[in-house]
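Memo to structure team: turn this sequence into structure tokens by end of day. - J.P.
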Amino acid sequence: MCGVPTKVIAVANQKGGVGKTTTAVNLASCLAAVGQRVLLLDMDPQANATSGLGVEKTPGASVYRPLVGEGALTEKILHTAFERLDLIPSEVDLCGAEIELSRVENHLQRLDHALRPIANGGQYDEILIDCPPSLGIITLNAFTAADFLLVPLQCEYYALEGLSMLTRVLNQVRDSGANPRLQLLGVVMTMFDGRTRLSQQVVGEVRQHFARQVFDTVIPRTTRLAEAPSFGKPIIHYDKYSAGASSYEVLAQEFIKRLQALSSAAPGA
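Reply from structure team:
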């Protein structure tokens, strides 16, 4: 994607345990593996993306201080053990940002202002933001800073209900003028179990309602995917020949194509 401006993608779902962080970490690592220069920004106070890349949770290392105007976000970038994949880690103190940001001016634009020098610097092809499992101020900051929204969606009964809420918030952020450029990049179906009728029904129903916005690639529920974070490795570095690794490698290729198509079709592209 040489010569193309850095794209910022918020990976979000207000429900926890749906494969959001698993998707952020593994998609980022697969993009890096095929030559993309990727920055993963962990904005979830649980810091699972941070530990999933084998990085220690360190007080003061997160986006927290730059969000409130103390220091530059560029100072928080760490190189990981994986080529072309950098990280801005998270920490538990980020929980306090929800309260502190509500008291400052332009509280929804704080991340956009902090991230802009990195996005404009040409150092990365993509910046992926792992959002908290909520629709609070931190997530809304990510929406305001992002070009695209990527939604991991678990193959479960309430999937459509949660997706409808997310798209409603996306439209509100765009229509309010907070971020008119924000687009839905797509929906990734996760934790798919081909043995159950429910998984197949949910995928079919989501595809029926959201059609081409749903990625063709479906991420399976596997033991190896669940194990990889405890070793501080993305799945392609933990078990390259597993079903989970293959799925995220295919998703990365589909992601790049979709990102290029939507970016070239965007106004002013």
